[in-house]
Amino acid sequence: MPERETPTGAMDDVDAVTRAVLTASRLLVAVSARSLAEVEERLTLPQFRMLVVLSTRGATKLVALADLLQVAPSTAMRMVDRLIAAGLADRQANPDNRRETLLQLTDEGRRTVADVTSRRRTEIAAIVERLTPTQRLALIEALTAFNEAGGEPPAPALDDAEPHPLGWAIDVPVARDA
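Above: the chain sequence. Below: its structure as tokens.
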């Protein structure tokens, strides 16, 4: 794409920004892959993604979970079956409607999400520490604008109890008991 002048007079090169973001996304994918390395024998990235959704949403119906993951319910069911077999999730009858089944994390599933997220946070922090304070501020401003443009909610602070959905922000209302 050609460069064009913005109202402030600065050059706006969408291709250069796109290339920089693609490069950063490769780095972040590599960090994500390394953070999953300790559990990769029993957990794929899509399965981890499901664990994160269950971690942030709590007990969830299969159809809602499939919608959140943007997969077919049959695909979600196969993933759930594998997570249950690994001891990371379980099914329970909905106390408000015994015909419905809710899916939720086990204690081991919650520990897995916390451990992987902690490893990811540690590696990202090590990279960020290599930046100058000015570069850090510029990165915060740029990534905040980028995330807002993409509709991604902010990640929690280090001391927040709830894990971050890790890049799968989807505005789908989920009723936990319905």
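The first strand starts at residue 4 and ends at 5.
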